[in-house]
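During the second year of the project, the team shifted from modelling isolated chains to modelling whole assemblies. The rationale, set out in the original proposal, was that interfaces cannot be judged from single-chain predictions alone. As a representative example for this report, we include one of the complexes processed in the last quarter. Its constituent sequences, exactly as entered into the pipeline, are reproduced here:
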Amino acid sequence: MDTNVILLLLLVPLLGALLNICFGKKLGNGSGIIATLAVLVSFIVTVIAFFQVNTTKQPIQSDLFEWMAFANFKVSFGFLLDQLSLLWLLFVTGIGTLIHWYSTSYMKGDENYGKFFGYLNLFVFFMIVLVTGSNLLITFIGWEGVGLCSYLLIGFWHKNQSYNDAAKKAFIVNRIGDLGFLVGVFILAFLFQSVDYMTIKESLMHGTNHQINTWIGVAALALFIGAVGKSAQIPLYTWLPDAMAGPTPVSALIHAATMVTAGIFLITRLNFVFDLAPQIQNIIAIVGAVTSLFAASIGLVQNDIKKVLAYSTVSQLGLMFMAVGFGAYEIAVFHVITHAFFKACLFLGSGSVIHAMGGEQDMRKMGGLNKFMKATYATFLVATLAISGFPPFSGFFSKDEILMTAFHNNPALYIIGSLASIMTAFYMFRLLFLTFFRNFRGTQEQKNHLHESPASMTIPLWILGILSVVGGVISLPGNSWLNNYLQPIILNNAANNHHAFGTIEYVLMAVAVIGALIGFGMAYSKYIKKGDIPQEDEQITGFHKVLYNKYYVDEIYMKIIVKPIYALGTFFRDVVEVALSETIFGLGKIVDGLSLQGKKAQNGNIGLYLFAFVFGVCIILYYLFIAS
Amino acid sequence: MENVIEIIGIEKYIYLSIILFCIGVFGILFRRNAIIMFMCIEIMLNSANMLLVAFSTYHQDAQGQVFVFFTMAVAAAEVAVGLAILVTIYRNIGSIDIDKLKNLKG
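Output from the structure prediction step:
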């Protein structure tokens, strides 16, 4: 029974992917329906399994077969449906279904319609593998698989070279993180003779010694590097904004809601390992906080609607890492879920806008769209309120809990996180005002083309909008369903010995709301009252220019990493390879020349042969009998 | 009756055999007529045969003489084959001068 559940969950999206990739052209519009249904089946299975596990409190586990075995080190091809993986599955398949449905309209008319859904289903399959794997290696399969799908989908419109470059960048930057992941897996395998989560957890519960703790610290750091790559944190975040080259539903599903949260998932899954490495947890918190502020500040001045959302995603992921770094895993998970709701809603909303604008992504050419796109506007507004942290929207609760934890653990990071939140409120309302308010600034032709998107696009928006509003109920302060639910997963449940809910907490909440209001007020006065429109690229000066050019990080990476590697490559090609090939070919030429000379001795003259023969025998005899 | 080896001395047989062998070798190296070269090969073979017989007598052991019989039989067979080849060569190029045989050229 358990095995069947897992097989059904896994194989339906895979089957959908194979059908769509192999027969996409023949299926036509059917491929979208098949893909959506495939994910829907997974979602239904997940819901059933979720209720089962929620009642029995026993994880569903199944080892399909033994994958590899050396001496006393065995890896089984096993899957595990416990509270954590089911939670992830719920929103991966749930939001996945909505986004598949949305894409059936959004991608209509694309020449590779079937292939798109094939890749999307393949992504869902790998994501399920990632979250349900019962050991690190299965997770790694999923980890690499989602990276591959991300690459394929970023470069989906492969006729545009810059999109291909973005895809390659995403893949290569992720490879750096993946190396860290692998190193971490090796260290854990070496320490525990196992990569199975349960086994590692049990060995750790029996206590450790000082030396093992040091190695666990190294493993935690390596795994964190893996998470940094996948979840786009400093210094490996640069691929995520570029990843917006992909179709907008892809940005919503992969680069906002699901794949990029894999880093949080990994750390939460291995919370018992990270708890033993407090220095690494500190690093995680600091990296998260700095990333959230850094990305938010870049987001302030971007003019591309998807770029703003991309930097916002990086910033929100930073907040999640901050929570993880404080050991508040359940709070990070909470924010992952609410973020998945409102960020998917925002991305799909921006997709709806881009769709109406005929592919235009520059906010300077939009404006006044609320008159044309009522449903998109309403859902976008709700999601903006949620991400900015206005009560009682979902984002308020999760962000507030993160900031509260930060306040209790490290006030400096609390201030950084709060600043990032104010910036978030500002740039999100800037985005909202520039896109939906005042007058339309595009061409007349675009204006005539403006229309609300079809129902298959707006219904997912409504569902996600509603979830963004009510998502907070899963973890209300004081009485958190989520904390109780995740209790079996998290070994040291920091939030459960939570401080009593008192005055400080209410003050912090008030501060957070005031922060959000400040961001809103600034955006309102600048873009509604004064009616500013962001300047043209050439007129930007000073620090604004630094922000607009994303702190020149891409340029710096280009200079200090990419260029030297290219130079090294050129050096190897022009010097080392030439030297090597000259040596090898030189040897060949010498042998060739000698053999040409030697050939002349074989002139067919029997007399000479006989002479050589006798001469040779004489020499042999001389050495045998006389010289010795 | 005194042994013929003891009368003449084994070293004389060795010298004779060396001389015969060298005659054969130089004949091979300097003559160009295939028949003559054949004969030179026979001389070399026979010098070896003689040495075998001489030592066989010297050691009072018949093994060496048995070898000689084998050598003679093999030599006879070889001559038969060799002469047949020579005849064919002569038919083909009208000469048995080995300088004209250049078909072994590599």
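Chain A has two domains: 135-548, 556-627. The beta strands of chain A are 60-70, 73-81.
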